[in-house]
UniProtKB/TrEMBL annotation:
Gene assigned in the entry: Cenpp
Organism lineage string: Eukaryota, Metazoa, Chordata, Craniata, Vertebrata
Organism, scientific name: Lanius ludovicianus (Loggerhead shrike)
Listed name of the protein: CENPP protein
Short name of any one Pfam family annotated for the protein: CENP-P
Coiled coil start-end: 6-33
Signal peptide: none
Length: 190
C-alpha cells in the first residue's frame, strides 16, 4: 500500500482516539456529578419518591393540587425576585475533585440585579469533619456590565480578592437599587 493511505488511516485512528478521550472525560464528569450525593441521601430520595408515588396511586395529590403547588412556587419565586431584584439566568456546576471528606466544584453563574448584568465564576471547596460541613470560595472572578465606574471596579476587585459572595450580593443589591433610582431621575430630567 501507499504511504498516503497509511497516513490517512493513522490520522483517522488519532481522531477516533481523541473522540474516545473526550467522551470518557464527559462520562467521568457525569458520573462524578451523580456520585455527589451520599448513599444515605440517595436512599432518602428513593424513599421520598416511593412515598410520593404511593400517594399518587392512592389519589392523595391530584394533578390540580400539583398545579396549585407549582403556581404557588412560581408566585413565591416571583416575589423573591421582585423583593431582592436578582434574576439568575444561568448556572452550571462541574465537580473538579471528589474525595470522602472533600469536594471541589467549579460554578458559573450569571444573572441580573435590577438592570445590572453580572457573571460569576468561582470554585467551592466543601470539607466535611464529623457532622460539620465547611465551605470556602476561591478563584472568584466577577464580570459586571458597569465596570466604567471606578468605585464599582474597586469593589469588584476587593470582592474577588476576599472571595466573599455574601458581601457581593448584598452590596450589588443596594448599588443596583440606587443605580435604578439615579437612572430614572436622569431620564426624568432629559
Amino acid at each position: 500500500m501507499d504511504k498516503s493511505i497509511y497516513q490517512a488511516y493513522e490520522e483517522e485512528i488519532q481522531a477516533l482516539e481523541e473522540e474516545i478521550r473526550l467522551l470518557t472525560e464527559k462520562y467521568e464528569d457525569v458520573r462524578q456529578e451523580s456520585t455527589f450525593f451520599s448513599d444515605e441521601e440517595i436512599l432518602q430520595s428513593i424513599k421520598s419518591f416511593q412515598r410520593g408515588t404511593e400517594g399518587e396511586t392512592k389519589g392523595d395529590e391530584s394533578p390540580s393540587d400539583l398545579k396549585a403547588q407549582l403556581e404557588s412556587l412560581g408566585t413565591d419565586l416571583s416575589f423573591f425576585m421582585t423583593f431582592t431584584g436578582f434574576q439568575f439566568t444561568s448556572h452550571s456546576k462541574k465537580t473538579v475533585e471528589k474525595t470522602e471528606n472533600r469536594t471541589v466544584q467549579k460554578h458559573r453563574l450569571s444573572g441580573k440585579c435590577h438592570s445590572l448584568s453580572f457573571q460569576l465564576e468561582f470554585q467551592l471547596l466543601e470539607m466535611q469533619n464529623n457532622e460539620k460541613v465547611s465551605a470556602v470560595v476561591s478563584d472568584l472572578s466577577i464580570v459586571m456590565e458597569s465596570r466604567e465606574d471606578s468605585d464599582v471596579s474597586k469593589f469588584v476587585s476587593s470582592t474577588e480578592e476576599h472571595g466573599n459572595l455574601l458581601t457581593f450580593f448584598r452590596s450589588l443589591s443596594a448599588y443596583a437599587d440606587w443605580y435604578e433610582h439615579r437612572r430614572r431621575t436622569f431620564l426624568h430630567f432629559k
